[in-house]
């Protein structure tokens, strides 16, 4: 067994197609198939359901795949740690963010790229639970998530500014005065909201319900992209983080502040405490401390 076989397995999971997985790994499809069969023989397990095309992983294959991701993350971390010991930072910084985070990652990534030009970056949108799980297993270097109920014995955190909310709308379809909007005024609008299980939606519901208001959203979705499309099409307005910069996406989109609108919990930059801890995470965490200290 070698690292490349695990990479091939992960590429197959991400593409769900033998030919595309082979192309991503810069090998031929017969070579990919041969190496995966070799891995199956070594483990004495069938990992992949095969027909005329890829038909998914077997139950043991799914379990091996989870371990493959963990091993590969540890391998990448080892390479980055060795480079850091030589005075260089290389590899891929993996940053997870909760949906509709008010944190702008570009400020941090641009600074890290300036300091360490050989770094690459990978951003993932994850739930709070998924993020903590991936931080704990070293599949992520850093996460931006809510600090509510965070286990401070397992994770270091750096609290971010309180998240305020605003109403995102397309001015070709809606218009408002320059005054702060009230929660009561939003009830009459066609609202698009994230689905109820998401943390940001829970904060929106709390702000409505604590005032005795019960909104009936026109649209509910778990996709931020679809929500933004609906706003830009004039189908609805949406409650969004005020500091998100979403109003810059289009010349027609505006983000109007809402009075007394905060999320239930603070966001924070989170890093695991226990070793082995990513050298990239430590450098990034320290860099962001410098950024907010200078602002």
Briefly say what this structure is.
With 295 residues, the protein is of the alpha/beta class.
Can you describe this structure?
The structure is a single chain. This protein has 295 residues and is of the alpha/beta class. It folds into three domains: 3-66, Winged helix-like DNA-binding domain superfamily/Winged helix DNA-binding domain (Arc Repressor Mutant, subunit A, Orthogonal Bundle); 89-161 and 267-294, Periplasmic binding protein-like II (D-Maltodextrin-Binding Protein, domain 2); 164-262, 3-Layer(aba) Sandwich (D-Maltodextrin-Binding Protein, domain 2). The protein has ten helices and twelve strands. The strands form three sheets. It has a five-stranded mixed beta sheet with strand order 4-3-5-12-6, sandwiched between helices. A five-stranded mixed beta sheet has the order 9-8-10-7-11. Strand 3, helix 5 and strand 4 (119-125) form a beta-alpha-beta unit. The protein is globular and about 65 Å long. The model has no long low-confidence stretch (mean pLDDT 88).
Q: Which properties best describe this structure?
A:
12 strands, Arc Repressor Mutant, subunit A, globular, five-stranded mixed β-sheet, 295 residues, D-Maltodextrin-Binding Protein, domain 2, 22% strand, 10 helices, 41% helix, 3 domains, alpha/beta
Q: How are the secondary structure elements laid out?
A:
Layout: H1 3-15, H2 18-24, H3 29-43, E1 48-50, E2 54-57, H4 59-85, E3 91-97, H5 105-115, E4 119-125, H6 128-136, E5 142-146, E6 155-159, E7 164-170, H7 183-186, E8 191-194, H8 199-209, E9 219-221, H9 224-232, E10 237-241, E11 253-262, E12 267-272, H10 279-294
Parallel strand pairs: 3-4, 3-5, 8-9, 8-10
Antiparallel strand pairs: 1-2, 5-12, 6-12, 7-10, 7-11
Helix pairs in contact: 1-2, 1-4, 2-3
